[in-house]
Amino acid sequence: MDNLNSRERIQKAFPSLLKTVRIEKITIAGIIDEAGVSRTTVYRYYYDQKEILTKS
């Protein structure tokens, strides 16, 4: 995920996590780890995991 901006990285992290984690088990912490961004960055763009899913 080299040249992607933070929002794109977050949007790509969610479907990537869905390959290995059930949707109800996906957390903001998991998204942060997968996307390589900070918690503040996630909440700058999204209210919660559900919003990430609907905008991915």
Overall, the morphology is globular
The stretches of 5 or more residues where confidence is low (pLDDT under 50) are none
How many helical stretches?
4
Provide the CATH architecture: Orthogonal Bundle
Question: What is the residue-mean pLDDT, rounded to a whole number?
Answer: 90
CATH topology: Arc Repressor Mutant, subunit A
Strand content: under 5%
What is the C-level CATH assignment?
A: Mainly Alpha
Number of domains: 1
What do you see in this structure?
The protein has helices spanning 6-18, 28-35, 39-45, 49-55. The chain has 56 residues and is mainly α. Helix 1 packs across helix 2 and helix 1 crosses helix 4. The protein is globular, with a radius of gyration of 10 Å. 23% of the residues are buried.
Task: Give a quick set of tags describing it.
mainly alpha; Arc Repressor Mutant, subunit A
Quick description:
The protein has 56 residues and is an all-alpha fold. 62% of the residues lie in helices and 0% in strands.
